[in-house]
C-alpha cells in the first residue's frame, strides 16, 4: 500500500469517525420528554383536567399544552372518571 493510499484511508476513517460522533451526540440530545417526571394521581369526584393542570403544570407551560401532554401520555380523552389513575407531569428541566 502506498503512502497516498494510507493517507486517503486515514482521511476516510476520520470522516466516518466524525460522522459517528455527530450521530451519537444527536441521539444523546435529550428532548423535553426525556426530562419529564410523572407521579400517579387518582381522579376524585369533581376533578377536571383543567383543575389538575392548575395544580400540577410546571412553570412556563401553558394549560392547554399541559392538558394535551396529560391526555397523550395517559392515552385518555377529555372525559375522566373518579377512581381512574393517571400519571401527572410534575417537573420539566429544560
Main attributes of the structure:
rod-shaped; alpha+beta; 49% helix; 94 residues
Q: Low-confidence parts, pLDDT < 50 over ≥5 residues?
A: none
The residue-averaged pLDDT reads 85
> What does the largest sheet look like?
2 strands, antiparallel
Find the count of extended strands (DSSP E, 2+ residues).
2
Inertia-based shape: rod-shaped
Describe the structure.
This protein starts with a helix and ends with a strand. Helix 2 packs across helix 3. The chain is 49% helix and 14% strand. The relative contact order is 0.18. The chain has helices at 3-28, 49-56, 63-74, and strands at residues 37-42, 85-91. It has 94 residues and is of the alpha+beta class. Strands 1-2 form a two-stranded antiparallel ribbon.
Topology:
Elements lengths: L2 H26 L8 E6 L6 H8 L6 H12 L10 E7 L3
Antiparallel strand pairs: 1-2
Short summary:
Helices cover 49% and strands 14% of the residues. The protein has three helices and two strands. The longest helix has 26 residues.
Amino acid at each position: 500500500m502506498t503512502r497516498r493510499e494510507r493517507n486517503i484511508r486515514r482521511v476516510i476513517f476520520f470522516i466516518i469517525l466524525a460522522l459517528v460522533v455527530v450521530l451519537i451526540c444527536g441521539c444523546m440530545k435529550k428532548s423535553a420528554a426525556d426530562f419529564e417526571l410523572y407521579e400517579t394521581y387518582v381522579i376524585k369526584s369533581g376533578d377536571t383536567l383543567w383543575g389538575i393542570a392548575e395544580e400540577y403544570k410546571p412553570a412556563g407551560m401553558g394549560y392547554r399544552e399541559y392538558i394535551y401532554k396529560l391526555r397523550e401520555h395517559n392515552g385518555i380523552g377529555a372525559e375522566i372518571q373518579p377512581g381512574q389513575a393517571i400519571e401527572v407531569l410534575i417537573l420539566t428541566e429544560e
